[in-house]
Amino acid sequence: MPITMSTTSPQHLAQGPTLDIPALIDASPIGRFQLGVFVLAGAAMIIDGFDVQAMGFVAPELVRDWGIARVALGSVFSASLVGMLLGSLALSVLADRIGRRPVLVASMLFAGLCMLGTAHARTLTQLLALRALSGAGVGAIMGNAMALVSEYCPARRRASTMMLVSCGFTAGAVCGGLIAGWLIPLAGWRAVFLSGGLVSLAISLLMAAMLPESVQFLVLRGARRERIARLVKGIVPHEPAARLAEVHYLVRGAKPAGAPVAELFRAGRARATLLLWGLNFANLLNLFFLSNWLPTIVSDLGQPRAVAIAIGTLLQVGGTLGTIGMGLLIDRAGYFRVLVPGFVAAALAILLIGQPGLPLPALFAVVLLGGICIVGGQPAINALTASVYPTRIRATGIGWGLGIGRAGSIVGPVAAGQLVALGGSAHAMFLASALIALASCAMTLVLARRRDGPGDAEPRDAASADGAREAAVER
């Protein structure tokens, strides 16, 4: 694929030929260099999923080991979620200032150390503090990993690639369950966190050695041309290094200026930002409500314990299928043509779950559909968020969306618990959840109205208005 470079822009005539990095990535095939980035990002997502679920796997053994009441662990679960919320908000902003790579590597390292510390906790207070700190480290992983994948992936495959990498989260949760089931009988609950911490440290060292910084971020930050050229060489390995060293590299959009969070509300992005925050909040509220309460409610409706456990597992299986399937569909049809009917289907599925007397095969079917649309829908929301914001604030945009969503993940299970305490019926709980899914659908529809022109299925890249391309890339 020869690349054609332009020298027609007056401001760059003295600097030689120019090349637009996003145009180059969009026109180039995905090669080994980019696959390496995606694999490392997926490995980080595995640790994220492992850490989020690890406490749930060890909780029964911990209660027996320490002789504490189950309710005492509620504060530990909450501390982890609050830590994730704060880490997602704060460290995503830092990533748009110093880079995705250092924040991602440091977060993995810190989370690994905290998991090792958790393995040596002796009191409930120590456990609470370590889980909060671990949550803060893990909270930065997903937003930065998704930003990095987005900035190395061509637009034609961006949604499906980001969502496929997101499957690492589910894989981490599944691996955590398998590891816990194997290690706890052999070595106790501490071995689960010990193994997770060691793997996290190993991945962080591997990332420190092999994970590149976002080349788009480096261009916007004015990094040395030689450093940028080395990364571009990975994208187009056939191009002579000497030629790449003479190029002036461009990325659409202004250079970073001011507070990244304030930038989320500038240049006509305020409405999209608020809608994406609402979408994250609503969907993660539903996701954590279903993940935490579905097996219990199904059991209370008269189903055997084995069925209740299978229902909880089926929800996550649906999430994996939805992540892969929706990603492929979004690449073809666009975000809104997939998400809007997806949230409608989710509302119908959730409403049916709460219907008394539903035959078991039908219950399995609607739970699977709910998992496909709700659990599988969250990676789609992350990918949608990445497409809305320009490079200079992309990590902040994804991180703050997830941070607001973490608040929903705290509210969902707590609100369900309050409804149970007040004597609310299962039907009422699922009705409320279905209405929230419809609210997600409504917000997605309003967000879709940002598009210009007939047949558009995706949000306009917020950077596209900042200037026309100055380099042509030909196949």
UniProtKB/TrEMBL annotation:
Keywords of the record: Membrane, Transmembrane, Transmembrane helix
Location of the region described as Disordered in the Swiss-Prot/TrEMBL record: 452-475
Sequence ranges assigned to domain Major facilitator superfamily (MFS) profile in this UniProt record: 37-452
UniProt GO MF annotations: carboxylic acid transmembrane transporter activity
Coiled coil ranges: none
Bilayer topology: Multi-pass membrane protein
Xref: InterPro entries: MFS, MFS_dom, MFS_trans_sf, Sugar_transporter_CS
Pfam families: MFS_1 (PF07690)
Keyword Transit peptide: no
A cellular component annotation (GO) from this entry: plasma membrane
CDD domains: MFS_PcaK_like
TM region(s), chain numbering: 35-59, 71-91, 103-121, 127-149, 161-185, 191-211, 274-294, 306-329, 336-354, 360-385, 397-416, 428-448
Cellular compartments annotated: Membrane
Protein name: Aromatic acid/H+ symport family MFS transporter
